[in-house]
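Pipeline run #58 for the internal structure catalog. This entry was flagged by the ingest filter as a single-chain record with no existing model, so it goes straight to prediction. Upstream metadata was stripped on purpose; only the residue string is passed forward. Reviewer on rotation: M.T. Logging verbosity set to normal.
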Amino acid sequence: MAQRTVPTPVVPVPDASKVPSSQAEIKLSFAPLVKQTAPSVVNVYAARQVRPQRSPFADDPFFGQFFGERFERRPRVESSLGSGVIVDPKGLIVTNNHVIEGADEVKIALADGREFESDVLLKDAKVDLAVLKVRGDNTFPVLALADSDALEIGDLVLAIGNPFGIGQTVTNGIVSALARTHIGVNDFGFFIQTDAAINPGNSGGALIDMKGQLVGINTAIFSRSGGSNGIGFAIPSNMVRAFVSAAQSGGRFERPFIGASFMPVTPDIAEALGLQRPTGALIQSVIEDGPAAKAGLKAGDVILSMDGFPIDNPDALGYRLATAGIGKAVDLDVLSGGASRRSLSLTLTSAPEVPARDQRTLSGRTPLAGATVENLSPKVAGELELPQDLTGVVVADVERGSYAARFGLKPKDIILAVNGDEISDTASLEAALSEGARGWRFDIERDGQRLTQVVR
């Protein structure tokens, strides 16, 4: 009997030169994906001059006679290293604000070794993002921004950056969690958590998905040793998109004005409202004639979702509002009176600057000389991260070494009264100080507490 031969099945071999497009191909190598995306991730070098403190004997004529200029210390230069991502072919780069904060000079270096000077177009400490613009006319490879709302826990991601200044490095991992809050990085708590190794120097680098798109800007790690423990956090790309759009329009990154204050829903509140679990943003107060009031929102209402996205806490609501942008109408799902649920539309607007800020820098021989003060409005309060229903005169800045600095005045202090006279605006404050006095009594609100300070 003739022996029958069974043909061996032919298994197709994936093309190693293309970006992996299936789970089977991903298991082979990330190399094609890295080749595609790594040129768009840069190193960011920030330098700042730090002036040393003067010696207490520097102005003394006796010691100056013998030691001359040895008391005069030269400024020293501090440098920091981070990463950045090119998001526009004309040279727009996104990084973290803390990477370039206080820098006098910022340089970027590409993966191919080229270096360029850059300028800071926009920065915001609250969201910890900054946008740089490379000087000159050049064309650069870019990373496309993904929809970070499409991410799911368990998705594969790569982190690309320059940890410890050793050069561009790629690590891989998965999305460990979404919408992380209260991690102590910034006030916009809505982070992607990943176990891809992120170390010092990775800040501002790219977190990319398997399509080679940017899903987040690596920002922080949870670590007791300073190294990676497998818990890293990235700012979602949808927040990055909104921030870059503000930089491209030449404005500042502005949060929508709602005209309401919020608090989390605790387990006790959830039980009282008939909710199965603590979720939502509970409205504490509503500003009269503000957008929230005009939309029909009231104190005690709970916002459960916005445009179909669940709102688990006030941080989630703040994120959704910020990424939606000024001028957009959003749909809210609201629980009212602990029983009925209703839908309403809210139009997002800019915070009003009423009254006008009328910024003034105080002078003369008074304890407040050297302080810059402004009239409080919802816009000014939002910029200073204060409750937007506050009124009066707020300290915006204090000049170093001034009388106000020695007096202990701090930014965000609200000046309530001078020598018993209430202060309603910057003009009345300046008038009260110009009258002069043998002694001064100031009533100041700081962090919600009223303080009285006397100077004789």
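catalog note: Confidence is low (pLDDT under 50) at residues 1-6.
catalog note: The longest helix spans residues 237-248.
status: ready for reviewer M.T.
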